[in-house]
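re: ur question from earlier - yeah i can do the single chain one, its not a big deal. heres the input i used so u can compare w yours
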Amino acid sequence: MSYAYFGGCKIPYYLKHYETATRAVLHHLDIRLNDMEFNCCGYPVRHRDETASIFSAARNLALAARTRNDILTPCQCCFGHLKYARFRLQKDASLRQMANRHLAAEGLEWRPDVDVHHLLSVLFHDVTAGAIAERVRRPLDGLKIAAHYGCHALRPGHITGFDNPLAPTLFETLVNATGAESIAWSKRLECCGNPLWGKNDPLALHLMTQKIDNAFEAGADAICTACTHCQIQFESVRRGQPRQQKPEDTRPAILYIHLLGWSLGLTEPELGWDKTDRIRQLMMSASHHPPLTRSEEAVS
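and the output i got, formated as tokens:
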């Protein structure tokens, strides 16, 4: 099983450990990633020039088509926009002709048979939660997780096809496969606030704070994300905002791939963690297992 890997623009710069862990976990699960010279997905200019944003996405889809691989991305914004562009290109003949006219200069062509998959979708549909549960070596017993879906994977539901946008269960199922417990919390489908960061900071922080408080009031030990922007909001932006200290301020946001990788028995370097990482400390406590010895690593 192989995919063309689309890391996007933000992950390599802001969340390098997301890519490190994604590569390690997918390799462990026998999924091959093919690296390609992709350009930006187009989302950052979508509201300035939609045609340009769709052409940017179309070029990526055409590059993947040349290798006969679907695209896999761990970034929800990239996933959402690439799916949106694919939908528009399928429906709009004039847009499709324009894109292919420009792509022809590079010997490329957009074709409808190349699809786009988010990391969680591949884990859920291709690997399956049952197979993940069977391979868990450090069950995260007792760890209560608030699964935060993010907006771009769920909506518009008829375009992304990720899960039921009003009552999704995919993320919670994957969390439970690690041995952790996904909790119910009322704001799990609401925006984290990051799209407003830099445009309306007070509102962005208000949305973030409401979500964090709601998750931890519901009993979560950590918020779990699978979105570049949501992780940046809950970790980097939150750390930079002084407010009256609450117990939940010390509780981290965890990328799902780290939750999964630790439960599967991967080592700290494979997951991109350092010795003082709060997430590592939390999961070591939850799993009641120390890091693997060298002999254990050899058979993992």
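The CA atoms of residues 16 and 239 lie 18 Å apart. not sure if urs matches, ping me
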